[in-house]
Amino acid sequence: MYKKILIALDLEGVNNVKGVPYEALSKDTDEWKIARKQGALEVNAAADALFSAGADVVALWDNHGGGHNIDPADLDPRITLLDPDLSKPRMYFADDYDCVCYFGYHAMEGTLGGVLAHTMSSKTVQFYKLNGKYIGEIDMDGYIAAAHGKPSVFYCAGDIACAQAKRAISGITIAVTKHEISRNEADFRNNSELFDEIREKIVSAVKSSHDYKTLPFPAVFEKSFKRVEDADKYLNRLKSRGVDADYLSDEVMGKDAHTVQSTVHNISEFIACI
């Protein structure tokens, strides 16, 4: 059994949240207030089951919008609430844990039917691709966790997001929070039934051994922006860091000013490109 468990929490994918048309799940909105409470309840159900099963540490990485969403008073006091240094690489603290579990993540930008679907930024990003295939946040964090030698074992989110997680990470255990219908429409689960499922499945997940698949390098990374100004700033930032990057070549336009293509040679460059 994995004894030290890291829980990564986003908010769009928790139960009872569907958002508002044309808006992200921004802090201090009514939907965000529902999400932060619901997220704490789902994590508490998981933590209670994990500690009962023999876990030594359950740590929470609250990563929606830079963190500081969950009220510590709403959390099981046995949970270690992290306050990461945002100037350091994403998930730099993963070495301290045995495995990673994900709650509240969401479908990637452009996913038909995905509730509040986006990838990293609903305002600026059109898509991410890795070696020619669309990827979302679970793909990225799964590869980062694997680079630290940590398997991703459990994923709790909407049904469409769960399908993407199973595609991204072989063998991951899922628990569905809601049936996703459109960007702002979903059929929600009964919380009591959901919490029982979380308790059962997360314990099963941490008691099983899991492989992890590291990203083979070099890899081709694409990030496409909704505005060309943002693409230009991003390209200049990557070049300043020594990343091999340029606008995506196109046979009609010459260069696609919305999309930057990079060749990454290690996990540090991969994280820089996110």
Tags for this model:
Rossmann fold, five-stranded antiparallel sheet, six-stranded parallel sheet, 274 residues, alpha/beta, globular, 26% strand
What does it look like?
With 274 residues, this protein is of the alpha/beta class. The protein has 2 domains: 4-123 and 135-206, Rossmann fold, CATH 3.40.50.10780; 219-273, no CATH class. It is 30% helix and 26% strand. It contains 6 helices and 13 strands. It has helices at 30-53, 137-147, 159-168, 191-206, 228-240, 267-273, and strands at residues 4-9, 57-62, 80-81, 99-103, 125-130, 133-134, 152-157, 173-176, 178-182, 185-188, 219-225, 244-250, 254-264. The strands form 3 sheets. Strands 3-2-1-4-7-8 form a 6-stranded parallel β-sheet, sandwiched between helices. Strands 6-5-11-13-12 form a 5-stranded antiparallel β-sheet. Helix 3 (159-168) links the parallel strand 7 and strand 8. Helix 1 (30-53) packs across helix 4. It is globular, with a radius of gyration of 18 Å. The model has no long low-confidence stretch (mean pLDDT 98).
Task: Describe the structure concisely.
The chain has helices spanning 30-53, 137-147, 159-168, 191-206, 228-240, 267-273, and strands spanning 4-9, 57-62, 80-81, 99-103, 125-130, 133-134, 152-157, 173-176, 178-182, 185-188, 219-225, 244-250, 254-264. The chain is α/β, with parallel strands linked by helices.
